[in-house]
Design goal:
219 residues; alpha+beta
């Protein structure tokens, strides 16, 4: 009985080990993709914020009229060639970016990769941090549910005062398209590992449990 218990524990370990490793590996694939997407998006928002700061003029005469100040800054941002060129390039150059915009403190779109949205009130979307901070199972649901747009935001401080924010829309469909081939490969490898573990465990148990009976027969 003691020997059988040891064999059962050994078999359980041999099967559980590849299953646990597979779960951890798949979890790491999803979280790594989400982390790298957030890091790349954060770099883009920082660069757009830098260009916005360069485009904003240093104004003093309008300091007593905040509305006039915001309108002037918005004009300079909307006409700056470097900022506009960078904004227009992010969607095509970076696969995970759905759209990009600069929004003032009142939620009005100053610049947007979709020109038709300029001047409109921005539509509120969930922050990307929600996806990044979720546990693994919820991350899978968020990535593999119908596509959703999450935002990476960076506050803008222009001309010595809060102005609004830089926003990047990240579509979970892009994350899914990157993760799925790697997950499929991981599942196949994991399935092979688990099958081999089961075959090995079955073989060892047969040998181990068969030895006493053979010994008895020879006696």
């Amino acid at each position: 009985m003691r020997r059988k218990s040891q064999i059962v524990l050994a078999i359980t370990f041999m099967v559980a080990a590849p299953v646990s490793f597979s779960y951890i590996y798949i979890c790491e694939i999803v979280q790594q993709e989400i982390r790298s997407t957030h890091e790349a998006a954060a770099e883009l928002t920082s660069e757009l914020a830098r260009l916005a700061n360069n485009a904003a003029p240093e104004l003093t005469s309008a300091q007593n009229d905040p509305d006039a100040l915001r309108r002037t800054i918005a004009y300079y941002l909307s006409t700056d060639s470097n900022l506009n060129a960078m904004l227009e390039s992010v969607v095509g150059a970076f696969r995970y970016v759905y759209d990009a915009s600069i929004v003032d403190a009142g939620g009005k779109v100053i610049l947007h990769t979709d020109p038709d949205l300029i001047g409109n009130q921005v539509s509120e979307r969930p922050e990307f941090q929600l996806l990044q901070n979720a546990d693994f199972r919820r991350q899978l649901r968020m990535v593999y549910n119908p596509p959703n747009i999450y935002e990476v935001r960076l506050p803008l401080q222009l001309n010595g005062a809060p102005f609004g924010s830089v926003r990047l829309g990240i579509n979970t469909l892009f994350i899914r398209s990157e993760v799925t081939p790697r997950l499929r490969h991981a599942v196949i490898i994991s399935g092979i590992a688990i099958l081999l573990s089961l075959l090995l465990a079955a073989g060892l148990s047969h040998i181990a449990l068969g030895q006493p009976s053979l010994a008895g027969e020879s006696g």
